[in-house]
Amino acid sequence: MAKQFYIKTFGCQMNVYDSSRIADMLQQKGYTPTVHQNQADLVIFNTCHIREKAAEKLFSDLGRAHLIQLEREEHGLKTIIGVVGCVVQAEDEQIIKRAPFVNFAVGPLMYHKIGQIIDDIEQKSDRQNFIYTDFPAVSKFDFLPENKAQGACSYLAIQEGCNNFCTYCVVPYTRGVEYSRPINDVITEAKRLLATGTLEINLLGQNVNSYHGEDSNGKERNLAYLINKIAELDGIKRLRYTTSYPADMNDDLISCHHNIDILMPYLHLPIQSGSDKILKAMNRRHNSADYLRIVEKLYAANPTVRMSSDFIVGFPGETDADFQATLDIVNRVKYIQAFSFKYSRRPGTPAATMENQVEEKIKKERLDVLQTLLFDYQTKFNKSCIGRTMPVLFEQTGRHKGQLIGRTPYMQNLHITTKRDNMNKIIDVVVTEATTNSLSGKEL
After folding, report:
1. Alpha-carbon span 158 to 78, nearest angstrom
2. What does pTM read for this prediction?
3. Would you kindly state where each structural domain of the chain is located, as residue ranges?
4. Would you give the distance in Å from CA 121 to the centre of its chain?
5. N or C: less crowded end of the chain, CB within 10 Å?
């Protein structure tokens, strides 16, 4: 009987992509996936260190996994437990100290070693901990097996790491400096995904629009060049990219939103705060005026484009006036979706030791106000779609018989009830109902 593996993924879409590639490696070794952790011979937690209490959540999960590990041992079954991702990079010593039963821990740039690590563990009778947190000189992508589409929408990592060093962020410390995959490697992977069923490709990077991969002649090319190349491939119906950094939103890239029909009219463009004082303290390379100029250029290039964003509330030194500036930006841009969080200290980042840390009570109050405003604009946009015909890519089944769930060009969840086989297809749907978080519709 084939051994089984279970992966739990936390955090960003890059982690989702990484987990899928880890799954590819494990299946190549003969493992099969399971959704039941207590049946798994190999349990992996792919971690994120961006949000508050990320490490504590991991240790809670590890504690439960250890209980399952001990229970399986009583029945003569061995369970390998591994941790990968950004928490490993930041907390490797704590993992070994607080969870010595963990068999291996690898940072996000080293997970291509998992296959060899598992072989080493299986060959040794005594428990050993394998820890890899290096920043290798050679790209992990060079060691990964060929992947295939898992559905009609596929994520494709083209860039990793970040050079911006925002004062609140751990990414440069956990994912390293920026690395862009060569153009030909990206195109080859895109072709393989399209040949195996992908209709939509979402290009991924911590700072995706800083992409500067080399072409076959060794010349650096930007994201706009890559998007144009991918848009020419046979079979591609939709194209997206995330996450973008405002200062790297150049005119070439903005022009793509005018010239390339398959580039979806939804852009995640995080501003974090509307206050120039706070943006400077965050070490963001833009101010509010810069950001609004970029938005105006995007709207001019394609009036159908709509934005989502990230916001941090209660950054050290944020006053009522600074917070009002954030509300003003929201009222200017009218985001159709957004992610908003209270500032939380990340050990090792400059902001963690800044003076004038904002009280938790004030952060909560401000977040409530901001989210109320954001949800209001999200609801208004969703309701404005009622009566419109929208192309929807259906990717999963719903809870009810005949129910399918898909995404519109604006990343809205939309569900229909149908007797047709519309899974992994793009279908025109008339929107009939709308709530803050989803749409309902009828197929034409």
Report:
1. 37
2. 0.86
3. 4-132, 146-264, 298-384, 389-443
4. 31
5. N
